[in-house]
């Protein structure tokens, strides 16, 4: 009989946390890439999904996507809410900071440690994404001033909002209390005065974090820390000889590549799975592409069973 852990993700019943907590996980072996476990909480009548997300260090959109049956503004009393606290690590080097735009999530791999820290983030609105790039943290500032770029000043002026040349640190400064500038254009990682935008597309390209998350992370990041920005809606990774797929809704800018049908991403995944010596259950892959919810799910039998082509 198959082990149940290879059939459904683990679900751990939890109570609602009082405040968001940084999520730290032990790094798996180089052959594995899945960390964490799914959890369940009981929603309270007075909670919206935003409040549940904030209490559990999750972004709003990722919680909505993993709970399509739950009303985002008025969850039923005692309704079970899935917390998507299981992740597939991004491919590539496990070092520095990795930001996956399509996932609305950041991963930080502290040098010389065997852990990974992960945080929800807010990202750029349509037309304001930084794109895929490799850069680094070039400066850090506590209580930063904000110099609005000319493009943002023009945008706001068209809406009747006249921005000053410099917005001093304080309650009106959208950067929050901490800013880490990246070595690319004017982009950075910073806090926010509007935490409800974390996990959504709200910025002019910068990466926004919950105030408590940036306060926690800021002192840990050395100058020169490598930052890799990717835009990967579909992640693959092994755990205990089983291949998992994590499927997110592609960002709007990606829909011309992934739509109008599923054939493009299906064929790309077929190519990407060739390096994994496991039999793929292609019907599950197609189902996940049709209904992406951001939850890692097994798409193979354990290593050494079946054939990869038989289940297509």
Describe what is shown at a glance.
The protein is an alpha+beta fold and 312 residues long.
Explain the layout of strands and helices.
Elements (H helix, E strand, L loop, with lengths): L10 E3 L9 E4 L7 E3 L1 E5 L6 H7 L4 H7 L13 E4 L2 E3 L7 E5 L4 E5 L5 E6 L2 E2 L8 E10 L7 H9 L19 E5 L5 E3 L10 E3 L3 E2 L2 H7 L8 E5 L3 E6 L2 E6 L7 H4 L4 H10 L9 H9 L6 E2 L14
Parallel strand pairs: 1-4, 7-16, 10-14, 13-15
Antiparallel strand pairs: 2-9, 3-6, 4-5, 7-8, 8-9, 11-12, 11-16, 12-13, 17-18, 18-19
Main traits of this protein?
single chain; 312 residues; 3-stranded mixed sheet; 3 domains; alpha+beta; 9-stranded mixed sheet; 26% strand; globular; disordered N terminus
């Amino acid at each position: 009989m198959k082990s149940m852990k290879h059939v459904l993700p683990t679900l751990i019943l939890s109570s609602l946390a009082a405040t968001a907590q940084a999520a730290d996980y032990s790094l798996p072996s180089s052959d594995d890439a899945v960390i964490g476990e799914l959890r369940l909480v009981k929603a309270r009548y007075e909670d919206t999904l935003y409040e549940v997300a904030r209490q559990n260090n999750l972004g709003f959109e990722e919680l909505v996507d993993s709970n399509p049956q739950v009303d985002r503004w008025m969850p039923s009393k005692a309704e079970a809410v899935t917390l998507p606290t299981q992740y597939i690590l991004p491919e590539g080097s496990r070092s520095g900071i990795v930001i996956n735009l399509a996932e609305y999530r950041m991963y930080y791999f502290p040098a010389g440690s065997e852990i990974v820290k992960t945080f929800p983030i807010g990202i750029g609105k349509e037309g304001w994404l930084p794109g895929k790039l490799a850069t680094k943290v070039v400066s850090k500032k506590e209580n930063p001033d904000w110099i609005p770029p000319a493009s943002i000043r023009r945008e706001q002026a068209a809406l009747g909002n006249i921005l000053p040349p410099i917005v001093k640190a304080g309650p009106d400064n959208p950067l929050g209390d901490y800013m880490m500038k990246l070595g690319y254009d004017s982009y950075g990682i910073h806090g926010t005065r509007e935490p409800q935008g974390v996990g959504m597309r709200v910025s002019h390209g910068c990466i926004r974090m919950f105030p408590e998350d940036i306060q926690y992370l800021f002192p840990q990041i050395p100058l020169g820390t490598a930052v890799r920005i990717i835009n990967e809606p579909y992640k693959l990774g092994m755990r205990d000889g089983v291949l998992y797929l994590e499927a997110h809704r592609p960002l709007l800018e990606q829909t011309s590549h992934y739509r109008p049908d599923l054939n493009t991403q299906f064929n790309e995944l077929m190519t990407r799975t060739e390096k994994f010596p496991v039999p793929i259950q292609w019907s599950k892959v197609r189902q996940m592409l049709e209904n992406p919810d951001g939850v890692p799910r097994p798409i193979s039998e354990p290593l050494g069973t079946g054939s990869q082509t038989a289940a297509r």
